[in-house]
Write a structure and sequence with these properties.
411 residues, alpha/beta, Spore Coat Polysaccharide Biosynthesis Protein SpsA, Chain A, 60s Ribosomal Protein L30, Chain: A, 2 domains, nine-stranded mixed beta sheet, 12 helices, elongated
Length: 411
């Protein structure tokens, strides 16, 4: 049967309990940051992603057992994860296979015949909530097979040969599925049997159970139940976890500070805050060397906990040669919004002996505000000299400092 598009209610979960199979056998090294390990072992707030995932189920009263499926080559990495916390619910660690169906089958084989409710979860979804886990267990009790899903918000296009649109599905009937996915034991067994021949690719357990002819219902998923696939996903999780910690203190505000300096050089344009200013020389750098915008970028990244400008836009990368710093600021603003934050205000100062910058401040504030998509009332730019002291006072360079406040309390 096709997957139902009916969202079920949570129901009474007081007595239900299940066993979760955590699938951690993937080799996804694409985003491992050059450290050469699968993404489930990448650190997140000081602990491997897998550690956080296991901890979610360890602390949930609706879960009475955990079966961990890993790659045979990851035994040492897994031992390191488990050394950090005694997971009392962890029953067994088994080797997975080449395909997801093989790993699920291995986890299923390690379960007990009395395990009537089985969940399957991606190791790299470490932010699943207690509410969702409990609701899924009860959903499986009530309906046999349930998956969390969220409605598609973008218009979806079906494309042929990677270039030609051949259809536009009705997005009102489309959902993005998540994990954990919960099933009565026999339904999952039927699903594994239905795809054992391996002729067709299956990307989740619901597909297997559907293939076996069983109805699968959906339960309302969570936007925060992120699967770590890219560095941006990891950044957002870092942010969400920091905000969860901050919620206890009742504050969603974070402050960042940025500082930058560039030497003056003949033959260069002087760009500050995206505004070209007439001067005998400009600032030297790999990009347009907009010292003010660079300081603001670092302040925003610092407040959001997203690294620094050198890490995101290294001067060794030819893509950023002579690039407008406003383009970089636009990308950073998108990253800040992606983690659920808004810019409250920015206060910045430019240190330059010459030229006089006061006549240009209004244009600079407007340029920055337009790039950040905020009101000019949220940006304050000041200019000062250093009374002819130091490299700024000697006309050898310029410096800028910025402080910003961001807020995530309304995410």
């Amino acid at each position: 049967m096709p997957q139902s598009d009916t969202v079920i209610n949570e129901g009474d979960s007081s007595a239900a309990a299940g066993v979760v199979i955590v699938v951690a056998a993937g080799r996804g090294r694409r985003m491992s940051g050059g450290i050469g390990i699968p993404k489930q072992y990448i650190p997140l707030r000081g602990k491997p992603i897998l550690w956080h995932t296991l901890a979610r189920f360890e602390g949930n009263d609706s879960i009475r057992g955990i079966i961990l499926v890993i790659h045979p080559e990851d035994r040492a990495l897994c031992s390191h994860v488990l050394a950090g916390k005694p997971f009392s619910k962890l029953r067994s660690i088994v080797d997975g296979g080449a395909e997801r169906r093989d790993s699920v089958c291995a986890g299923l084989s390690a379960s007990d015949e009395t395990d009537d409710i089985l969940l399957v979860h991606d190791a790299v979804r470490p932010f699943v909530s207690d509410r969702l886990i409990t609701a899924l267990v009860q959903g499986a009790v009530n309906h046999g097979a349930v998956v969390p899903a969220i409605p598609v918000t973008d218009t979806i296009k079906e494309v042929e040969n990677g270039a030609v649109i051949i259809g536009t599905p009705d997005r009102r009937r489309l959902y993005c599925s998540q994990t954990p996915q919960a099933f009565r034991r026999q339904l999952l067994i039927d699903g594994v049997e239905a795809v054992r021949d391996g002729k067709e690719e299956v990307t989740d357990e619901a597909s297997m159970v559907e293939r076996a002819g069983h109805e699968v219902r959906i339960l309302e998923g969570e936007r925060g139940n992120i699967k770590v696939t890219t560095q941006e996903d990891l950044d957002r999780l870092e942010w969400l976890m920091s905000q969860q910690s901050g919620a206890a203190s009742g504050s969603g505000n974070r402050v960042g500070i940025g500082f930058d300096v560039h030497a003056l050089a003949a033959g260069r344009k002087l760009i500050l805050g995206g505004v070209e200013i007439d001067h005998v020389c400009g600032l030297d750098g790999h990009s347009d060397a907009d010292v003010l915008t660079h300081a603001i970028i670092d302040a925003l990244l610092g407040a959001a906990g997203l690294g620094d400008i050198g890490r995101l836009f290294p001067d060794s990368d030819p893509r950023y040669k002579d690039i407008s710093s406003l383009q970089l600021l636009r990308e950073v603003a998108a990253r800040v919004r992606h983690v659920g934050a808004t810019v409250v205000n920015i206060d910045a100062v430019v240190m330059a002996q010459a030229p006089k910058l006061a006549p240009h401040v209004a244009a600079i504030e407007q340029s920055l505000a337009a790039t950040l998509e905020i009101s000019t009332a949220r940006i304050s730019v000041k200019a000062t000299t250093t009374e002819r002291l130091g490299y700024v006072g000697r006309g050898e360079g310029m410096a800028a400092e910025a402080i910003c406040l961001i807020d995530s309390s309304q995410q």
